[in-house]
Every structure is written in C-alpha cells, then in structure tokens.
Task: structure prediction
Amino acid sequence: MPLIDHYYLATFIFVLTYLAIISEKINRAIIALLGASLMIILGVLTQQMALEGVDFNTLGLLTGMMVIVSITKRSGVFQYIAIWSAKKVKASPWGILLMLSLFTAIFSALLDNVTTVLLIAPVTLLITAELRVSAFPYLFSEILASNIGGAATLIGDPPNIMIGSAVGLHFNDFLVNVAPAAAMVLVVNMLVIYLIWGRKLEADDKRREHIMAFKEKNALTDILLLKKSLLVLTMVLGAFTMAHSLGLEPATIAMSGAALLMLLDNIGKSSEQQTTNVENCFKDAEWITIFFFVGLFIMVHGLEKAGVLESLAEQVLHYTREDVQATALAILWISAIVSALVDNIPFVATMIPMIKSMAVSLGGAENLMPVWWALSLGACLGGNGSLIGASANLIVAGYAERAGSPIHFLTFMRYGMPMMLMSIMIAHVYLYWRFF
Amino acid sequence: MSEAEDDNKFSSIYDVIMPTPIIHQGDTVKTFFSLCVENQVLALPFCTRQSGDCDTHHISGFVSLKSAMGKDCIPNYMIDMATILHDDLDCKEQTLDKIKNLLCKPVETYLDENIFFVSPETKMVRVIALMEKFNSSWLFVAEEGQYKGIITRQLMAQKMIKMDC
Result:
C-alpha cells in the first residue's frame, strides 16, 4: 500500500479512536487496544513495528510503582499521616486544609496521584463532616495539589513518566527543572484558596475536640509491613535520585523495588498465602491504565510511521517560525487547554514523537529541553482546569458523590479553570525566566 | 427401611427447609427488613409480580440484608476510616439520614439476579459445595416450579449436630 494511504488511514483510525475515548461510552483500554489492532490489521504497522512502539520503560515504571503503593497502603500509613497532620494544626479548619493539601502534593509527587487522592478523600470527608464545614474547598484544594505535586517529579504523573522515558530524562532533571515551577504554582494556588475559602472556615472547640480525639495509631493496621514498605520506598526514591550515576532506568528501579517489597511481604508465609498475597497485589495494579498505554503507544507509533506527526510538527514550526521560545510557550498553553478538556495521556503520547521530530529545525535535541518542560507543565497542570481534566479529579468526584457531597462539573470549572490559567501563567513566566 | 436408605434420607435437606415469604415488586426495603426479622433469614427471593402467589418463573432474583445494608447504610468514608472512628463522633446524622432514605427505597434497588435453586432432595454435600462456590450462607429451594423455602448454614449445622462425633 502506498505511503499516502497509510497517512490518511492512520489519521482516520486515530481520530476515530480519540473521539471514542472522549465520548467515554466504552472503556478507554478497549478502545485503545481496538485502535492498535486496526493499525496492524489494516497494514499501517506490522506486529513487529507495533511492539517497537510500546515503551516498556513507561509500563515498567508505572506497574512497579503501582505494586509498591498497593502493598504500602495496606499498612494504613497514609491515613495515619493525614490524621496526624490534622492534629498537628490543632484541628483548625484552614490548618487542616493546608496540611491535607501539602500532604497530597508531596505524596502525589512521590507516588501516583490517583492512589493519593483515593486515600486522602475518606479522611477529608470524615474530618469535614465532624467539623461541619463544606467538604468542597478541601477536596478541590486536594485535587489541585495532587495535579501540581504530580507535575513536580518524573514519577508523579503519567505524562512525566512518558516524557522522561522517551527523552531519557532522570528523576533529578524533573526535580531541578519542573519542581520549582510546581512549588511556586502550589504556593500561589494555596494563597488563592485561602482568600476564597480559607479565611472564612470556622469550627467550634467541641467539634475540633472530636478531631483531636482520633487515635491515628489505630489507622496503622500492620506496623511490620509499614517498616518494610518505608524501607523499600526510601531505597526506591534514593535510587531514582541516583539513577544517572547508577546507570539504571526508572523501570528497573521501580520493578526491583516492587519485587523486593513483595519478597519482604511474603517471606515466611505459606505457599498458599503467598499466592493469595501476590494475586491481590497484582489485582491492585491499574491494568486498564496499563493496557490503555499499550494501545496508545501502538496507535501513536502508527501515526509516526505514516508521517502524520512529522507533518503536524512542520505546521507547528511554521506558526512558531522555528523559534524555540515561541514553540515551547505555544506547547505549554495548547497542552494545558487540551489537557483540561480531554485525557492528557493520549495527548502527551501524540506530542512526544511530534516534538522529537522538531529537533532538527530547532537546532538539535538539546534545544528541545524547554519544550519538554513546557509539555510536562502544561499537560499536568492543565488537568486542574475541569473535573474531567485528570483521573484524580474524577476519582475524588466519584467518591464524594457516593458520600453525599457531590462536586458539580460547573462548580469545579468556575474555580478550576481560572486557577489553572493562573498556574499556566506562572509556568509561562518561569519557563521564560529560566530558559530564555 | 434399610440403613442405606436411612443414610440417604438423612443426607438430603428436605427436613430442614425453612419456608419463607417472598418479597414483591414495589415492596420497600422496610418491608423486606421486617420480613427478614420475622423469619430470621438473611435473604428473600424477589417476585416480579406486585402481590399474590409466585412460581419460580416469576422469581427474578433475591435481595439480601448484606446488599441492602452494605454501603448504602453509612457513608463510604466511614467504612474506609472504620479503624479510627470513636464513639464521640458527631456525624451520626448523615448515617441516620442514609438509613431513613434506605428504608423508603423500593426493594428491587438491591436485587441480585444470580439466584440459584436446589430441590428438597438435594444432598447436604452438594448444598455445602454450592454455598462455598457462591460464597453464600443460604440457598433457595424449589420443586416443580414452586418456591419451597430457604436452606441456611445454621439449618445445616442443626441437622449435622444430630450425628455422633
């Protein structure tokens, strides 16, 4: 089949798949795998080429961290820290909001943000019910913090994992180049949240006493597991920061950590118990996300091989006149707005090969670095623009709705969109100041 | 009667079946709870007819106390935070609202369509195997299209203790 046919065919399959993902009528993993299958069946890619498109480094890192978090959370450490932090501020409503948001941001940066918000939402709803304050400012702030925290590190958010893997960036690269911007965005966002809600939050002493009466130690269900988990997490995070000198890829570190923690968790247990434990641990991995990635990688590879992404990159460079600064800032704003409205994972998966193909026109791979940071900040922070902007937002909204404290789409957007645009403005200034 | 026939008779469940009423389309959860309490059972079969007799063709499933109470009785976050709750908690109001709301709901909200019937001649060993398979504490019994009642683990134990160690 001539190349021109592949060009249109790949575009057609991708657009169709993208629309199906946006419609949310069918599970996104099914759609992505069907799209990937079509790319092979219709001849855009051979099976071998499709496999070459799958980024196993991203998949390994994601799966490894999912396993580590799945074991660690059983110890109850997250609830322990949340309650402990609420008591540290003497159950002051604003203090709790601030502490829970900071806790969410830090854990989202070091683990995955979906798990973090899933663990913090119950604590938040319990505390706000006790204090008789609205849960919305707390949950809203935590959603923002989770996406901002996730933007700060290589492992915090899937877009960063994909960018890091595709470009060969290390944990410290994100820490040095993106984390300062994320920290600034978090500070400004918390200030705005204080001005909107924080200064008006009040609770009488009796209600605060109820919070102080919580015994956070009761949240710890397995102290031995907690010790093992913290040991492995520390080792993994240490290895991430030294990955460059150790010559290790992030997937190797995460998978090794996962294997070590599973070993420590199962050592001395009967064969049957081990099987049950390992099965439960693997069940907790988000296979929908992992297979969604597999499908996406193949589809995007199809687009790449058909020359679609190269021609798109040429269009972008035409509008930005092949200027790195204009390209980076354009990517920052476009990725933020797109990520606020649709899933940022397929967007970033598409942008990565497209940006890679700009290297020659922009003066080499080294010159592309600000563009990568722009994509990372735009895609991660953009998720705060609407309730559907990031998985963590939807997870919190779903949980809150079941608890009888629904977060409405328009209410979230009324506050989220301006705050997201403000965050992108900060990121814009940061990128300009830091790299140009 | 021979010893083998005696064993055979003993090993089937026909003599420990507990007859129960059936809940009907349109009944509330409160009615369902009342019937469960009166009859000391954890589940009842559900009939698609609004009243009257009901053969197995019209029994489309069952409702259990576990599914009706489950997560609809108290807020989800209280279940997740169960280990740290204390008795001075003030958020009981939400729970009471939830319970009041639950009692007025139509019972079909909690319908489980995976209903399985055994006959009164079914052997105890098969009943135990099926209970284990479905992770259930009861099975419904029917014969010739007519609902006969329920067999529970307690009733099985009641039958078993008649045996010698």
